[in-house]
Design goal:
There is one protein chain. This protein has two domains: 207 residues, Alpha-Beta Complex (Spore Coat Polysaccharide Biosynthesis Protein SpsA, Chain A), CATH 3.90.550.10; 105 residues, no CATH class. The strands form two sheets. Strands 4, 5, 6, 7, 8 and 9 form a six-stranded mixed sheet that branches. The chain has 335 residues and is α/β, with parallel strands linked by helices. α2 links the parallel β2 and β3.
C-alpha cells in the first residue's frame, strides 16, 4: 500500500488487513511524504502489529514509483495490492491464495468488488469482472478487467515487468497487458474488497488525464490487432461503453458496433485454441447487439452492420434471436 495524505480512510484500510483470516503476511505501507497524520497512524499500527512494515519516502515519489519500491522490498512470492481508501474483506487473502494453490498457471488474480456509496444514498453495488483468461484478454483491449485494489500477483513476474514509471495514472491498465503476455489471469466472482468512491480519489480528481492515458494505451492495442485501421477517440469511447455495460446507450452507433465485431474477429483469429471461451464472448456480443437493436433507444441497423452480422455471426445470431423470440412469445402468453 502507498499512502499520500490518506488519514481520512487509512485506519479502516489497515484494520481490514489486520483482520485477515490468512495471518502469514507482511504488510508494507509506504508513506509517500504525507503532510497529514498518515505517517503517525502507520507507525502506531506498526508498533502494535509486527507484520506491518512502515516505509517513509523523504520526498513524494508518486504512486507508480512507490509501488515498484514496495515490490522490490517484499519478501513473499505473492503481492496483494491495497489502496488507503479501500477495504479488504476478512477472507480476501485466504480465498485468493487457495485459488492460486489450485491453479498454478495463474499469475494475476483479481476479484469482484463492492463499490461503496460515499453519500450513503443507497447500498453498495457489486461489480463483477470477466473470470477466465481469454475473456479477461478480450476486455483488456478496451477496458480494465481488474480492480487494482483487488489483485494479487506473482512478485517474480512483477520484478521483470514493473509498473511503467513514466505513467502517473493508468499504470495498472498498462501493466496488465505485459503481465498477461507471460502468465494467465483470472477473477473470482465473489467480492473480496470494498472500493471507495469519493471526491478525493485519484480517479475522480484526475479523471480527464487518466482517460487520455487510457485511450493512448487502447489505440496501441487496437493497432496490434488491426494495423490497417484508424481509431478516433469518439469511436473508442462508444466501443468501451458497449463492452462495459449490458444496457443499450443512446450514443451507440452502427459504425461502433461494426468495428467492435471486426475487432472481435481479429482477436478470435489470434486465439484458435480457445474455442469455448471465444464462443461465449461471441454469444455475449450478439446478445448485447440484439438487445440494442430491439430497444427504442438502441442502435439502428446499417447495411455494413447487417452484412457482418449475416456473414460472420450467422449461427450465433440466429441462435440468440431464436432464444429471444421464444422468451418474448412466452411472456406474451403469460400476459
Amino acid at each position: 500500500m502507498s499512502v499520500h495524505n490518506g488519514e481520512r480512510f487509512l485506519t479502516e484500510a489497515i484494520v481490514s488487513i489486520h483482520r485477515q483470516t490468512w495471518t502469514d503476511f507482511e504488510f508494507i505501507i509506504i508513506d509517500d511524504a504525507s503532510t497529514d497524520t498518515s505517517g503517525a497512524i502507520i507507525h502506531d499500527w506498526a508498533s502494535r502489529d509486527h507484520r506491518i512494515i512502515p516505509i517513509t519516502n523523504e520526498t513524494n515519489l508518486g504512486l507508480t514509483r512507490s509501488l515498484n519500491k514496495g515490490i522490490r522490498l517484499a519478501r513473499g512470492r505473492w503481492i496483494a495490492r491495497m489502496d488507503a481508501d479501500d477495504r479488504s474483506l476478512p477472507e480476501r487473502l485466504s480465498r485468493q491464495l487457495d485459488f492460486l494453490d489450485h491453479h498454478p498457471g495463474v499469475g494475476l488474480l483479481g476479484s469482484a468488488a463492492w463499490v461503496m456509496d460515499p453519500e450513503k444514498n443507497s447500498g453498495d453495488t457489486c461489480q463483477i469482472n470477466p473470470a477466465t483468461h481469454p475473456e479477461i484478454c478480450w476486455r483488456l483491449v478496451l477496458a480494465n478487467p481488474f480492480f487494482h485494489a483487488s489483485v494479487i500477483f506473482d512478485r517474480r513476474i512483477a520484478l521483470d515487468n514493473p509498473y511503467d514509471e513514466s505513467l502517473r495514472f493508468g499504470q495498472d491498465f498498462e501493466l496488465w497487458g505485459r503481465f498477461l503476455a507471460v502468465t494467465k489471469g483470472a477473477n473470482l466472482a465473489v467480492p473480496l474488497v470494498r472500493l471507495g468512491r469519493h471526491e478525493q480519489r485519484v480517479s475522480v480528481q484526475h479523471a480527464q488525464r487518466q482517460s487520455e492515458i487510457g485511450r493512448r494505451i487502447i489505440k496501441q492495442r487496437l493497432l496490434k490487432l488491426m494495423p490497417e485501421s484508424e481509431w478516433n477517440d469518439d469511436l473508442i469511447r462508444q466501443m468501451r461503453q458497449i463492452v462495459q455495460t449490458d444496457w443499450p446507450t443512446p450514443t451507440e452507433t452502427p459504425e461502433a458496433w461494426k468495428r467492435l465485431l471486426d475487432l472481435f474477429l481479429a482477436f478470435n483469429r489470434q486465439r484458435p485454441h480457445d474455442h469455448t471461451p471465444m464462443q461465449n464472448i461471441r454469444s455475449q456480443l450478439v446478445r448485447r447487439l440484439l438487445f440494442s437493436l430491439l430497444s427504442p433507444g438502441g442502435v439502428r441497423p446499417s447495411r455494413s452492420l447487417l452484412r457482418i452480422i449475416i456473414t460472420d455471426f450467422p449461427l450465433a445470431t440466429l441462435e440468440e434471436l431464436f432464444k429471444h423470440m421464444r422468451k418474448r412469445v412466452s411472456l406474451n402468453k403469460k400476459s
